[in-house]
Design a protein that fits this description.
mainly beta, single chain, about 130 residues
């Protein structure tokens, strides 16, 4: 009982922690680690403005040929059905997306490449 009183007194009389004020600048989205294209699913926003590269999780190249793409993507109409790798639903804005990817025109600058497929069962990572 005495120790709980002592602990309460120390906490009450100790210096208060300074409050951390949120900066008025917009916080940038940063990935926790390297982007794994085989684990991307859900709502995805494709950014085309290179000046917003800092807000993106990674860069992607839209491959015209299926044979050279790393991931085959099927566009879902509803986010609830985009529950496996390669099933993406278009997000209306950056703020509502699970992933924000910058679309680049040069394949060498992309983290991975995608190709859109019309068959849902083909969607996913290509195994080598």
């Amino acid at each position: 009982m005495f120790f709980s009183f002592l602990l309460t007194a120390v906490l009450a009389l100790g210096p208060a922690q300074p409050a951390v004020l949120a900066s008025p600048a917009v916080a940038r989205v940063r990935a926790a680690g390297p982007l794994e294209p085989c684990k991307i699913f859900g709502s995805v926003y494709l950014e085309t403005d290179p000046s917003r590269r800092g807000y993106c999780h990674g860069t992607v190249y839209v491959e015209p040929e299926e044979a050279f793409a790393d991931v085959l993507v099927f566009k879902e109409n509803n986010k609830l059905f985009a529950d496996k790798a390669g099933l993406w639903a278009d997000a209306p804005a950056r703020d509502f997306a699970d992933y924000v990817l910058l679309v680049v025109t040069d394949r060498s600058r992309a983290d991975f490449s995608i190709h859109y497929t019309k068959v849902r069962s083909f969607a996913g990572c290509k195994t080598n």
